[in-house]
Amino acid sequence: MKGKVALVTGSSRGAGKGIALELARRGAFVYITGRTTDISATEHIKGSIDSVLREIKESGGSGAVIRCDHTKDQETEVVIRQIAEEQGRLDILVNNVWGGNDLAIEQKPFWELPTAHWDNMFNAGVKAQMITNYYAIPFMRKAKTGGLIIHTTFWDHYKYLGNFYYDLSKNALLRMAFGLSKELKEDGIAVISLSPGWMRTEAVLEAMNTDEEHWQEVGELKMSESTTYIGRAVAALAADPEVMSMSGEPQQVGKLAEKYGFTDIDGRIIPSFIM
Fold first, then answer.
1. Average pLDDT of every residue of the chain
2. 125-156: b or e for each residue (b if 16 or more CB lie within 10 Å)?
3. What InterPro entries does the annotation carry (predicted)?
4. Under a CB-based contact definition with an 8 Å cutoff, are residues 192 and 149 in contact?
């Protein structure tokens, strides 16, 4: 991916971090956005955009950080403008920013759930990804070099996800990718929604009172996957010259591992998460 420029939103931790690190390992110049910097990080919050950039550079990769609150449209616009001025191109856009887990995602009927889920999942999730597309797509189209847009979401063959707001927002991202795939077909820009499995994010490990070195001691994490796994899926899609044939179709990381032959960091091909 030498010469390719990528933007991974919401990449201070979790899936975003795994994706940013893997794209950088493959040679892409990666822009990392998020709200948490070294200065704003606390002991409770593990990871920042600055710490991810350090990891990229320590592994021989290259990139840059741009602090951005993606719920503020003008800050997102500044991100795209900066990339345009510094690089003149954007080949890979990974819409990963997500603010939907600020409240517990409870399995309760819709009428018993707090309506604050709407602000978290739609304003800080669906809209944040939409606005990034709004500013990035004209720039990507102008370059006339094709490209790839990824929306990280959750999908299991359209099964109901158990929480009304979670189901609605995650399926909204599927439709966003599907609609854009139709509108960007002639530009040669593939748009794909990508669903990971049971990821060992920092939050999951903390909730299980473990860490990446000891997760195998926790039975509930037996079929979990590292955040590198989704990173390898994105890298495989970005390197596939036939990726346009998959545009608009939801993809699962486990299925892509079978298709492209990559593994997780422990050598396993972990099957797709099934509800």
1. 93
2. bbbbbbbbbebbbebbbebeebbbbbbbbbbb
3. NAD(P)-bd_dom_sf, SDR_fam
4. yes
Tokens of 161: 């996800």
Question: What is the signed CA dihedral for 53, 72, 171, 196, rounded to 10 degrees?
Answer: 10
- Give the residue extent of every domain in the chain: 5-260
Which residues, at least 6 apart from 52, have a Cβ–Cβ distance to it below 8 Å?
11, 12, 17, 20, 21, 32, 65
Amino acid identity of residue 89, one-letter, is R
More confident residue, 40 or 29: 29
- Which residue in the block uniquely carries the two structure tokens 């591992």? 257
- Paired with 7 in beta bridges are 31, 93
Could you tell me the maximum CA-CA distance found in the chain, to the nearest angstrom? 51
**This model's pTM is above 0.85:** yes
What does the pLDDT look like over 165-198, one tens digit per residue?
999 999 999 999 999 999 999 999 999 999 999 9
Q: Which residue has the higher pLDDT, 206 or 53?
A: 53
CA–CA separation, 143 vs 167, rounded Å? 35
Query: Cβ(227)–Cβ(199) under 8 Å?
Result: yes
Quick one: pLDDT at residue 144? 87
Fold of 5-260: Rossmann fold (3.40.50)
Ranges 98-112, 128-142, 219-233: which has the least confidence: 98-112
Sheet with strand 5-8: strands edge to edge: 62-67, 29-34, 5-8, 92-95, 147-152, 189-195, 251-252
Place of tokens 């856009």: 93
Q: Provide the CA 10 distance to its chain's centre, in angstroms.
A: 7
